[in-house]
Design a protein that fits this description.
The protein has about 200 residues and is α+β, with helices and mostly antiparallel strands. The chain is about 30% helix and about 30% strand. Helix 1 runs antiparallel to helix 2 and helix 1 runs parallel beside helix 3.
Length: about 200
């Protein structure tokens, strides 16, 4: 029953990942209290936050110039869907087996690429992994890892969580330098203009 319910909630909540968290906590910890908390959050997310942080424009049609810019940068991109976020055009797609968001300005200039690396710290560059594992959050659960590429900087975001603590967002430069560690806030997206 729980598995079926979690799959249903995952489908209903889209990018929220509440259902994933509920099943993940139960599977990893075996602690029903963690599962109950995440399951309650899943129900809340389905009922109250149906749209989450996704500004999906349901089949947004973009210019040929934007489509060409995406094809030139990522010729292997598949399942492309376009949306707008914070004044940018964002191509959500699969590229080289990873969920990828490619950000463009209104004049089709590439601004940023976000690649979802899942939750496995072994997908981080050695220098970033080493810094993370030596840091104060090494024992926390990893909720998500993303790689961001911009003209000025490539960096990694490791989202961590621990029961009884506020979730944290940890930002690392490619060389493993900690850029910042901040409390995770809903709808606090990384943008091409995010500074450190």
């Amino acid at each position: 029953f729980f598995y079926i319910t979690s799959v249903y909630l995952h489908l209903c909540t889209g990018n929220c990942n509440f259902a994933y968290q509920a099943s993940h906590f139960y599977r990893v910890s075996g602690d029903p209290a963690l599962c109950d908390d995440a399951f309650r959050d899943a129900i809340f997310g389905m009922v109250v936050l149906q749209s989450c942080e996704d500004d999906d424009d349901n089949g947004l049609k973009v210019s040929e110039e934007l489509q060409k810019a995406l094809r030139e940068r990522y010729p292997e991109a598949k399942n492309v869907e376009w949306e707008t976020k914070a004044g940018y055009y964002v191509a959500e797609c699969w590229n080289n087996g990873a969920e990828t968001d490619v950000w463009f300005s209104t004049d089709a200039t590439w601004k940023m690429t976000e690649t979802d690396l899942g939750i496995d710290v072994n997908r981080l560059p050695a220098s970033v992994k080493e810094t993370f594992l030596a840091g104060q959050y090494a024992t926390w659960g990893v909720d998500d890892i993303d790689k961001y590429e911009r003209e000025d900087l490539t960096f990694y975001l490791v989202e961590v969580e621990k029961k009884g603590q506020k979730d944290m967002d940890l930002y690392y430069a490619e060389d493993g330098t900690v850029l910042k560690e901040v409390e995770d806030r809903p709808n606090d997206d990384v943008l091409p203009t995010t500074s450190f």
